[in-house]
Amino acid sequence: MWRGRAYHLVPTDRSNMASRRFGSEGNLPKNEIGWPKWTYALAIGAPVAIGLGYWYYRKSKSKRDDDFSINGKGNLKPKSNLNPTSAKFSTQKASSESEESLISVSGRDFQKNKTDEEVLPKEPCEKAKAYKNIGNRYFKEGKYDKAIDCYTEAIKVCPEDRKGDLATFYQNRAASYENLKNFSEVISDCSKAIELNNTYIKALTRRAKAYDTISDLKNALDDITAVCILEGFQNSNSLLLTDRILKSKGKEQARKAMQTRTPILPSGHFIKNYFISFCEDPIIKISEKYKEEKKDSQNPKELSGFRLGIHNFVDNKFEDVIKNCTQEIERNGQDTAEALLLRGTFHLLQGQTDAAKEDLKQLLEMESVDVKVRVNALIKVGTLKVHAEQMEEALKDFDRAIELDPNNADIYLHRGQVLLLMDRIDDTLRDLEKSAALNSNFPSATAQKCYVQYRCGLRYNDSKQKEEALKGFIEAHEKFPRCSESYFLHAQVLLERQEFEKAEEFFLKAGEIDPTDPNVWVHRGILYLQWKQDVDSALGYLKKAIEMDTKCQFAYETLGSIQVQRGHLQKGLELFDKAIALAQTETELAHLFSLRDAAEAQGRVATRLGIDIGSESNT
Ligand SMILES: *[C@@H]1O[C@H](CO)[C@@H](O)[C@H](O)[C@H]1NC(C)=O
Ligand SMILES: *[C@@H]1O[C@H](CO)[C@@H](O)[C@H](O)[C@H]1NC(C)=O
Ligand SMILES: *[C@@H]1O[C@H](CO)[C@@H](O)[C@H](O)[C@H]1NC(C)=O
Ligand SMILES: *[C@@H]1O[C@H](CO)[C@@H](O)[C@H](O)[C@H]1NC(C)=O
Ligand SMILES: *[C@@H]1O[C@H](CO)[C@@H](O)[C@H](O)[C@H]1NC(C)=O
């Protein structure tokens, strides 16, 4: 399961992206609570800047009715700003006289025509504006070199104290350079404009894009963050650009971090839940048999290799498992295939992607391997490809697995999760239905099927489907009264429906069934924020989650987000760092780095714009 990391798995209805991200009342982003206890699948497209939520949070407190949303569906694609017509200048009206006389010079090289010079107004300000107007005309005609000359003249004659005008001239010249793809000049002119007016949105946006083009992501991020703040997070194009920059920057850092990170085994709770997401896991089968038959009579001192690995696995001594499997593999013992599967799984769990791939590949190349072992390995190979965002390749592994063992419920459950990441929600539902049908005693499949059915209902505004999903949950509770996952997912859905009391009841029920699950407390914290805006309770529950499981990355991440939203940047950054240290995969790291970057950029921009973050927010 995925430590309650829902949004990773739910690329969601795009049209709803922004309101999900920022919530409707300045709470945690809705995405945060989308997909809860899910198996080890990973995000493509982790969502943005929860960090940015702070500004929304603050804003929403002062302006409740100003609900943030991106209007309509079509508006989410950023329009290319590189064509001249989209760059509309704020044409300040020059005096009607000069405007009139200048029309005649349009299209000609005015500098060489003495009479034109005479036509220009004498007064410097007016003259500068006249040059600017000619420049604008050239610009619209696509004659950027000439436009640049005009703006240069405008800058030359404009009195220095006319800062607003000068800023406009520089900004306009930057737009011309942008069309000539001369980005160093774009940056230098925008910088001059911003120096003259540090809240000049158009210049900041243009410079952000130029920095982005030359891959100076840090500066691009600062500029676009400033724009988002100045626009009050109302402009979908700016938000999308921020999102994109944060993601590329996060990815870049994650790639580097993966090469140097020390592998950390996740918490015992996480590991156990990961294995529970398979109903036909050979390791679990072997462990159960071992528990039944041998555990008490067996002296572990007499065990070695894979058998000792299983003994330690059953005993939750997970640190020894890899070493013990290695012994089996090196001596090429009779359980080598199983040892490779177990070691590969542990490598996967601690984020050693290459080592995991190597183990599973070696296993798949062996002959006469039990089919369940082979299929389980194929599913995990597929998962690893998902981590590397090779979705189509991953699907091929699942196809191979289905060929070998067509009635294996695990394959469909895990393929369903890949399909969900690919935003193929109908196919996801079909696979989960199939998984649940193949094994009516597989609680995860049933619970997840209900959850995805509800999401389908949301996507297609189909209330019948939603009702069926809710009914399905009730049936699942009756059938699997000890399945915390189905209570947990049901609670998620109820939270989304704002049925808070019932949601809490089911979260508590999930916690009762699995008292070692820290995610219950994380989500209860989120519930209290949404329901009662009760930050203190939320913080309390999150701290409890961390006490229960000091490796609960999701708790650190959520706590960090709340601290940033409250304006406690430093605390937030520290918590994000803790989450980063625990992250297992590149995708996950990329997401966390994005959060961290968003928070840091806010801090820098606030200073630059002279906004005090800390003082206003100690509520
Ligand atoms: C200058 O512009 C006027 C029209 O305003 C035109 O009649 C004249 O021929 C131009 N002179 C030169 C040297 O291009
Ligand atoms: C950009 O414009 C400046 C000033 O006109 C020029 O010196 C420089 O060579 C140009 N750079 C590119 C890459 O075109
Ligand atoms: C700075 O730019 C903003 C537009 O982004 C404008 O509203 C403001 O008036 C400008 N300030 C000055 C001093 O020109
Ligand atoms: C196997 O597990 C034991 C703990 O039971 C551990 O002490 C030992 O170092 C491990 N190593 C090998 C090679 O089996
Ligand atoms: C969803 O369907 C209901 C009727 O079932 C309708 O009233 C509502 O406007 C629909 N919402 C959207 C967003 O289409």
Automatic annotation (TrEMBL):
The chain crosses the membrane at residues 38-57. It is found in: Mitochondrion outer membrane. Residues 78-94 have a biased composition (Polar residues). It is a single-pass membrane protein. It holds the Pfam family TPR_8. The keyword Membrane applies. TPR repeats lie at residues 128-161, 375-408, 484-517, 553-586. Keywords: Membrane, Mitochondrion, Mitochondrion outer membrane, Repeat, TPR repeat, Transmembrane, Transmembrane helix. InterPro entries: TPR-like_helical_dom_sf, TPR_rpt. Residues 67-106 are annotated as: Disordered. Belongs to the Tom70 family. This is Mitochondrial import receptor subunit TOM70-like. It comes from Limulus polyphemus. The gene is LOC106469183.
